[in-house]
Amino acid sequence: MLALFWSSHNPQRNSGSRQYINAVFYRDETQQKLAESSRDAQGASVATEILPVKEFTYAEDYHQKYYLTRYAEIRQFLTDTYPEGKTLADSTVATRFNAFIGSGMKRDWKTFLAELSSYGLPEAIEQSLRRTAESQV
Length: 137
What we know:
Elements: H1 2-7, E1 23-26, H2 29-40, E2 49-52, H3 72-81, H4 85-90, H5 92-101, H6 109-116, H7 123-134
């Protein structure tokens, strides 16, 4: 997971705001050592912080699954299905969509297509997504 983390953002930059900080959070000494080791492997000018987990706060609803905002029909379906921000944030389906759309999965469209029918989407949305993904394979 640390390798995916380091490959998905610019570790030389940090926003300067605690609200949008780039950080790896750890729960115990083992995780801390792994995080620090992975950070050290990134090079000299890493701004990403390694911090202990304290209290977890969910982001505001409009921040949840940000990349889905590009797909109004999917976002609306998921918002209707998971009406509370926390349930949307915790949804595996919403998380997977957000990752594929945001390229966190490196746009592995074959995997996306293999999973698509298990998401329980309305037929019209599923078919639209299938056409989009198939055009990328």
